[in-house]
Amino acid sequence: MIIKNSKFLIGAVSDKQYPTTGYPEIALCGRSNVGKSSLINRVIKRKNLARTSSQPGKTRQLNYYEIDTDVQPFYFVDVPGYGFAKASQKEREKWGQFIENYFQHRDACCLVLQMIDLRHPPTKDDIAMYQWLIHYGLNVQVVATKADKISRGQYQKHASVIRKGLGMAAEESIILFSAETGLGADEIHALLTQAVE
Q: pTM to 2 decimals?
């Protein structure tokens, strides 16, 4: 897949704002600050298309990025990070409703990248999200981020902790990823090509 062009399209907070092109959608979900924006930028080879922030919880809507490729245009959909304590309970509930609505009713969503920090065991929120996505029959790929922060010799040990914590089936894979070094970017690229075709 060759990426020809990419742009931020819209920050949607309701289904009335979702694009109507019918392009496939790849959703990225995970805790605040897990590296969703960094993954988008690395995979499409753009430095600042998706805004990264040191302040967790910046994404408060479904951020649509339109990616034009030689195979098929598609959207990356950056979902608000969960587990962000500074947002009010009311605000978190509002996010929860439109995120749930998106995942349950958006037929264009063909793949969900659930991103988990490789350095730490899955949180309660990670586990709840994974179980919820599986329950609703979504196509989920777990991506363990920030792999450059630990030594290569520790990869499998940390991946096993994630696998066990989420209760993953034996045949399900975990992609180890680093936005810094590019580890796992080719695997994700291949997965996206397969999903959008």
A: 0.92
